[in-house]
Amino acid sequence: MKTLILHGPNLNLLGTREPEVYGALTLESLNEKLIAEGQKMGLEVTCQQSNHEGALIDALHSANEWADGVIFNPAGYTHTSVALRDAIASITPPVVEVHISNVYAREEFRHKSLVSAVCAGKISGFGWRSYLLGLMALLEI
Ligand code: DQA
Q1: What is the structure's pLDDT at 32?
Q2: Residue 124 has what pLDDT?
């Protein structure tokens, strides 16, 4: 099962960006863990990150051609992007929304997600393991 793990804006700075909120793991180490854990589950994991809305949309369109499922952390775009919501709604593979932090324990503007309604489900608040739980969820779908 081919799986895309897609990281949105500012997640390239994991490890140094607000470590008290997002943890000390770098994006590279996170991706290595997810590829290894995915392998154990029989998933072929590919990881991508972009700070650009259009590039994230292109990655989702492309995943429609090759992926069986997508784990997506849209980061700040979660709360603002109609275009990303439309891209998720336009593709066939199930998309699981993930967040490292518990968005509901944070500022009110983070409580609203424009993408949740078109995702298969949402996981928030378990640190880097939110992605791992996302992979487990994809296996169940
Ligand atoms: C985030 C939560 C978002 O509100 C924030 O803008 C991010 C990261 C998370 O993984 O906890 O950049 O998606």
Answers
A1: 98
A2: 98
What is the Å distance from ligand 1's center to 74 Cα?
Answer: 7
CB distance 100 to ligand 1 below 6 Å? yes
Predicted confidence (pLDDT) per residue in 36-88, tens digit: 999 999 999 999 999 999 999 999 999 999 999 999 999 999 999 999 999 99
Ordered domains of the chain (ranges, CATH): 2-140 (3.40.50.9100)
- State pLDDT tens for residues 122-135: 999 999 999 999 99
Residue nearest atom 9 in ligand 1 by C-alpha distance = 99
Task: Find the helix packing angle between 27-40 and 129-140, rounded to 10°.
Answer: 30
Listed as own residue / partner, the contacts of 51-54 with beta carbons closer than 8 Å and 24 or more positions apart are 51/8, 51/9, 51/10, 51/12, 52/9, 53/77, 53/81, 53/83, 53/84
